[in-house]
Write a structure and sequence with these properties.
It is built from ten helices and two strands; from the N terminus they run H-H-H-H-H-H-E-E-H-H-H-H. The chain has 409 residues and is mainly α. The radius of gyration is 27 Å and the shape is globular.
């Protein structure tokens, strides 16, 4: 039901029960909507806290005539810095937000028994954003970890970059992350299609009758490999070719979007562990404390990502091996894989709403910035109310003068 779906397994035996567990059609949509609400609010706050917009704050203050203190962070709150690390954290939050906006659609899709009523364009765009989130997230985390490795091993200074060099360097890195992610996510945009499928009605298929459209046609948002397959193939050859393309794209997402980054990060952190105590023994104590905090946040984000996405990648890899006969075919195993697919997908999607909670739990500076952001918004709101009140008082005074003039006339 999503871009990471495993290839079609071998022909099923008639006695196998492939029916959907009915509570799933209520539980999973509710989880999706909760993740949408929590994740959108949390990642929006992350973007607010980590993006550096000092000019905007100064302009607001100067235009309104209010002191800079009223529209800036308190002295105890660290202002956002122009560091590559925080730019990548903002990139991670943006990737999560791009995906979270599609969760209401996937929620309705699941609640309707995987019936897609939103049309072809939204099917393609939603699938593209789902894939884009996975690649952009893991690439941002990988660059974050490598950045910390270079800083903590002393190969690059942790201070701010010169104003001339940092924007160019950060822009190139972020552009590379997002460009590569977009290219790898293109199959979800180009190959997704809304296809009309007839619900099962035969006696031996009673277990697979569609839960919301029995005996009718329903629309499924799924991968369509017809543009990759020659038209001169017979039905059996086409099915075999579709299995190969599904397996290739499935393994591509696992290798590039999971295993390869995991290997890079393991090498990075294993090498870093050998130098960690030695590095933290140098330099001023505040710098060591800041580096330790940053490393703890990044390691937590990395672990969260891989633990959330691991069940999905394992499930679809086992499905590929089962479909091509590398694992002896078993009706029970096939049923477990198909039944687990919605839930492992749900766990992977939850990662997008967990990151802000992890920031809040692991990073005191993020909590201070959130308080600073709320302080800033409260001051804006207070200023707006004050201006509105002064306008109303001025209007009443002018109204009083007009009334008096009319009464004298």
């Amino acid at each position: 039901v999503n871009y990471l779906s495993a290839p079609t397994p071998l022909p099923s035996f008639h006695h196998c029960d492939y029916s959907e567990w009915t509570p799933s059609l209520s539980i999973i949509p509710a989880v999706y909507l909760l993740a949408f609400l929590v994740g959108s609010l949390g990642n929006g706050l992350v973007l607010w806290a980590y993006l550096d917009r000092p000019d905007g704050r100064q302009n607001i203050g100067s235009q309104s005539g209010v002191s800079k203190l009223c529209f800036s962070y308190p002295p105890s709150v660290p202002r956002p810095t122009r560091s590559l690390t925080e730019s990548l954290i903002a990139s991670l939050a943006l990737a999560d937000l791009c995906f979270l906006v599609t969760l209401p659609l996937w929620s309705v899709y699941t609640a309707l028994g995987y019936h897609w009523p939103f049309g072809q364009p939204l099917c393609q765009i939603s699938s593209f954003l789902t894939a884009l989130n996975m690649y952009a997230s893991v690439f941002s985390l990988s660059v974050l970890s490598v950045e910390r490795y270079w800083v903590l091993t002393g190969r690059r200074h942790s201070g701010h970059h010169p104003q001339q060099s940092f924007p160019t360097r950060a822009a190139l890195i972020l552009a590379g992350v997002w460009l590569l992610s977009c290219i790898l996510a293109l199959p979800g945009l180009l190959l997704r299609s809304v296809e009309e499928i007839e619900a099962a009605t035969d006696d031996w298929q009673e277990e697979t009758v569609h839960p919301t459209h029995p005996g009718l046609f329903f629309l499924s948002c799924q991968m369509d490999y017809s543009m990759l397959i020659g038209e001169d193939l017979n039905e059996t050859e086409r099915e075999h070719a579709e299995m190969w393309w599904a397996a290739i794209l499935s393994l591509k997402s696992t290798l590039i979007g999971f295993l390869l980054p995991l290997i890079i990060l393991l090498i990075c952190y294993c090498s870093l562990a050998k130098l960690l105590n030695k590095h933290f023994g140098r330099g001023p104590r505040p710098d060591r404390k800041r580096q330790r905090r940053l490393l703890r946040v990044i390691v937590t984000l990395v672990l969260s990502f891989f633990l959330c996405w691991l069940p999905l990648h394992v499930n679809k890899t086992v499905a590929v091996l089962l479909g091509f006969g590398f694992i002896p075919y078993s009706c029970a195993l096939d049923t477990v894989i198909l039944s687990a697919q919605p839930y492992v997908t749900c766990i992977a999607y939850l990662n997008s709403c967990l990151n802000p909670l992890l920031y809040a739990a692991c990073d005191p500076a993020f909590r201070k910035r959130c308080r600073g952001a709320l302080f800033f918004l409260c001051n804006i709101r207070r200023r707006q109310k004050r201006n509105l009140g002064s306008k109303r008082r001025g209007g009443r005074r002018e109204g009083g003068k007009d009334t008096g003039y009319c009464s004298m006339g």
